[in-house]
Design goal:
With about 70 residues, this protein is mainly α. The protein is about 90% helix and about 0% strand. The longest helix is centred in the C-terminal third of the chain and has 31 residues. The termini are far apart.
Length: about 70
Amino acid sequence: MATAALVRETNGSSSDRDTLFMLSGIALMIFGAGLVLSNPTVQKYINQFGIGGLAQGALPDFERYLRLRNM
């Protein structure tokens, strides 16, 4: 595996390993967003409302989440 080979080459350096995990997490998030955005239902809503309309619709829910989290 590439991960095990990288850890062996760097003699277990934690900063290299942390960087590898961070970059792989970012890659997985981008891949997941691509999977969601490739869904025909999601594409229909994006075309119907546009990006700005979706952001305005989600903003009240996000603010409510932040208020609940601060309690």
